[in-house]
Task: inverse folding
C-alpha cells in the first residue's frame, strides 16, 4: 500500500509530455520531496479507489501533498511551489481563476498525445531516480 506521508506525483506513464515533466521535476527537486507513480500502476489504482469519482476520472496528473489531492493546474502550481527557487514566480498564476487555469490545462492535456506523442510502455527512469518510483 502507498505511504500517505509522501509527496506523490501520479502521472500518465505513456504520455511523452508527462514523462518529460517527471524528468524535469526530478532534475530540479534537489531535496527529493517528490515520489512518482504512473496512473497505470496498481498503486495509483488503489489510491484512486479512495478518492472522489471526479478525481478518479483524471487522466494526466494528480498530486498527493500533505494529505491533500491536487489536480490539473493546481497540481502543477503546487509542484512548482514545492520545488521552490526560481519557480516561485509561477505562484502568481494562483490569482487566475481556477476554471480558467484548468481550461488551458485541459486543452493541453486533451492534445498531449497528438502534439507530443504516446509511448508503447511506461518509461524506466535511471537508477538514481528509480528509487523514487512507487510501483
Result:
Amino acid at each position: 500500500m502507498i505511504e500517505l506521508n509522501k509527496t506523490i506525483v501520479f502521472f500518465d506513464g505513456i504520455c511523452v509530455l508527462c514523462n518529460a515533466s517527471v524528468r524535469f521535476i526530478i532534475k530540479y527537486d534537489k531535496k527529493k520531496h517528490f515520489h512518482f507513480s504512473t496512473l497505470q500502476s496498481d498503486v495509483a489504482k488503489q489510491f484512486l479507489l479512495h478518492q472522489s469519482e471526479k478525481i478518479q476520472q483524471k487522466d494526466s496528473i494528480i498530486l498527493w501533498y500533505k494529505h491533500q489531492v491536487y489536480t490539473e493546474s493546481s497540481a502543477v502550481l503546487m509542484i512548482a511551489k514545492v520545488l521552490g527557487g526560481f519557480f516561485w514566480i509561477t505562484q502568481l498564476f494562483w490569482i487566475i481563476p481556477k476554471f480558467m487555469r484548468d481550461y488551458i490545462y485541459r486543452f493541453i492535456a486533451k492534445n498531449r498525445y497528438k502534439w507530443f506523442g504516446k509511448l508503447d510502455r511506461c518509461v524506466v527512469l535511471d537508477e538514481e531516480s528509480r528509487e523514487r518510483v512507487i510501483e
Summary: The chain has a mean pLDDT of 88.
